[in-house]
Structures are given as C-alpha cells and as structure tokens.
C-alpha cells in the first residue's frame, strides 16, 4: 500500500512541476498589447510574486536575481496543493512529510549558500549567530540560540507548516466524505433506532465536507504564499549587512 501511495504522489509531484511550467510558459509566450485572459492572469500572478514577495522582502538592489526561483516555488507549491481537491487525484503530494522536507532542504541550501557567497563562511556564520548591539556577557547564551533558530529550526518549521496543513486538510476531506457516504448509504437501523438522524448526519457531513473544500482553497494559496515569502525573507537575511 505504501509503495503505491508514494509512487502516485511522486508522479503527481512531477506533474505539478510540468503544469506549473506549462502555465507560466503559455501565459508569457505571446505578449500581446491587449492581453488575453490567460496572459493577464499569468502577468498578475508573476507581478504578485515579483513585487509583493521578492522586491518587498529582498529589496530593490538584489531582488531580480531571485524572482525566477520564487515564482517557480510559488506555482510549484500551489499546483501540487490543488491536487488535494481535484476529483480522482484527491491527494496533495506535500501531505507526505518527506516531500516537504526535501523542498525545505533546497531552500536551506540556497539561503545559506547565498549568505556564504556574500559574506564568506566566517562572516556569514557571525551574521546568523552573533546579534549586534547586545552586551558581551549575554552572547554565550544567545549564540547557540541564534544558531539553532536560524540554521536548524528554520527548515524544520518551514517544512512542517506545509506538511501539517496539507495533511490535516486531506484528512478532514476524507473524514467528512467517507463519513457522509457511510451514514447515507450503509448505516442501518441496527446501528441506531433513529435512522432519520443517521441520514441527517450524513447530509450534514457532506455539507461540512464541501465547506472544508472551500476552506482548503484558502489554505492552498496561503501555504504557497507563506512558504515563498519566508524563503524570500531568509534570502534577504542572508544578504543583509547586519543582523
């Protein structure tokens, strides 16, 4: 069972990357003076990540270098998350923890490498671990905390946030849909003397499932935004001149 789930999720992850590429390519291939709906949507989405995330987080001087990474990351995550509410597929790949860990590990390598390139290994380690403007006597306490916070805990929380949200949403959709099906189609008077209550519960379960589906749309977009925003902020922190 586990092997088939992993295989399906792996294929969906690849499919998500392909679909994200196709969308971005199709909406940017022809730049008409009067944009089509697809081109307009692509331009607005690109500008949202370029301006609202990359430029606002990293700053005017350095941000353009990282726009391709952040745009790709945003669309890769949002497309894969959408799989969780698409019939037949009905599974978001990032509900598997190892996929979320892998994505966060890539981000960890990038923002650390960017910082080492900018400041050198020693300078970057000092930037991340030694806060400026604090008394020297408190540094032995703060340095290990800063090291743990900036270099160890960041990728863990980045991955767990994405994984936990997608996994919880997937479980809720399963719970309400399967529970509703059981109560409406399979529950009998043997289970309870009040068969009408069981049927009403089934209807309510399906209604809650639909509501959770709409809530998942918000969570899907929000998790893609938060992951991309934090990536941009981590890169900005690695490029900063001071802590």
Describe the protein's architecture and organization.
The chain is built from 6 helices and no strands. The protein is mainly α and 243 residues long. Helix 1 (2-28) crosses helix 2 (37-58). The protein has helices spanning 2-28, 37-58, 67-82, 97-129, 139-186, 195-239.
Topology diagram in text:
Elements lengths: L1 H27 L8 H22 L8 H16 L14 H33 L9 H48 L8 H45 L4
Helix pairs in contact: 1-2, 1-3, 2-3, 2-6, 3-6, 4-5, 4-6, 5-6
Q: What is the count of helical runs?
A: 6
* Mean pLDDT, all residues: 86
- What is the percentage of strand-forming residues? under 5%
Spatial shape: globular
Distance between the termini: 48 Å
Structural class: mainly alpha
Task: Count every beta strand, where a strand is a DSSP E run of 2 or more residues.
Answer: 0
In which range does the helix fraction lie? over 70%
Written as H for each helix and E for each strand, in order along the chain, the element string is HHHHHH
Low-confidence stretches: 1-5
Summarize the main sheet. Answer: none
Supply Rg: 23 Å
Short description:
This protein is mostly helical and 243 residues long.
List keywords for this structure.
243 residues; mainly alpha; globular; disordered N terminus
């Amino acid at each position: 069972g586990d092997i088939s789930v992993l295989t399906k999720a792996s294929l969906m992850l690849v499919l998500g990357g392909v679909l994200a590429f196709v969308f971005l390519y199709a909406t940017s291939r022809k730049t008409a003076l009067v944009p089509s709906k697809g081109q307009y949507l692509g331009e607005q989405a690109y500008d949202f990540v370029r301006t609202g995330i990359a430029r606002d987080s990293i700053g005017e001087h350095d941000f353009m270098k990282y726009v391709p990474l952040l745009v790709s990351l945003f669309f890769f995550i949002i497309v894969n998350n959408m799989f969780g509410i698409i019939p037949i597929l009905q599974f978001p790949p990032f509900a598997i923890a190892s996929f979320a860990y892998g994505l966060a590990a890539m981000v960890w390598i990038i923002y650390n490498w960017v910082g080492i390139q900018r400041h050198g290994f020693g300078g970057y380690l000092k930037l991340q671990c030694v806060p400026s403007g604090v008394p020297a006597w408190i540094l032995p306490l703060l340095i290990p905390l800063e090291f743990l916070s900036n270099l160890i805990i960041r990728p863990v929380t980045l991955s767990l946030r994405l994984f936990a949200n997608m996994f919880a949403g997937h479980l809720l959709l399963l719970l309400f849909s399967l529970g509703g099906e059981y109560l409406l189609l399979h529950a009998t008077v043997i289970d309870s003397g009040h068969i009408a209550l069981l049927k009403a519960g089934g209807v309510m379960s399906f209604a809650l499932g639909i509501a959770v589906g709409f809530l998942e749309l918000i969570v899907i977009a929000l998790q893609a935004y938060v992951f991309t925003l934090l990536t941009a902020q981590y890169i900005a922190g690695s490029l900063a001149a001071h802590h």
